[in-house]
Amino acid sequence: MKPHVRRALDDWHTAWTGQQDAALVAFSTAFPGLGRMASPTGCCDPRMKVERPGEASGFVCFDDHGRATVDFKGIPQIALGRTLEALFGCDWFDEGPDGIGAAPPGTYSWDDDATYAEFEIQVEADAVASICMSYVTVDAAVLLLDELQTNLTGKSGEPG
């Protein structure tokens, strides 16, 4: 490879790594407790995990196409319901007019044909829920994480 081509490719790698690192900072700022996983992660690198018993456990990752996946389980149904209502309104996932917070046990999903994003919400009989948002923008993942943080703790993720 010609030296000037190698430099251009190296510059691209440096910029991409910076984008990945910035996404991780945004994720962990929006949802404290997320920590970077060491490679190999079993998924795309970079990947972060969280264990907050009674609130959420799972992971967030950033793929090679610049899209994010948020896969959390063990979320109080009412907190996830408030989060999704704030972001999407009610009845987005055909869960009923009162939203996920009042939905009966079941699986609720939606695929965005325009962006290829996929959403799946699982509501359990014990009022605990899970969410998997796949192939979403970093913006969408950060908005979800920030709103979920607010609804779990009753306060924003801001320090102080």
The helicity comes to: 25-40%
Oligomer: single chain
Q: Could you give the count of β-strands?
A: 7
First-residue to last-residue Cα separation: 51 Å
What does it look like?
This protein is an alpha+beta fold. It is 35% helix and 28% strand. It contains three helices and seven strands. Helix 1 packs parallel to helix 3 (138-153) and helix 2 crosses helix 3 (138-153).
Topology:
Elements: H1 3-30, E1 35-36, E2 47-52, E3 56-62, E4 68-76, H2 77-88, E5 106-111, E6 118-123, E7 128-136, H3 138-153
Antiparallel strand pairs: 1-2, 2-3, 3-4, 4-7, 5-6, 6-7
Helix pairs in contact: 1-3, 2-3
Concise synopsis of the structure shown:
By secondary structure, the protein is an alpha+beta fold. Helix content is 35%, strand content 28%.
Task: Label this structure with key terms.
single chain; 160 residues; alpha+beta; 3 helices; elongated
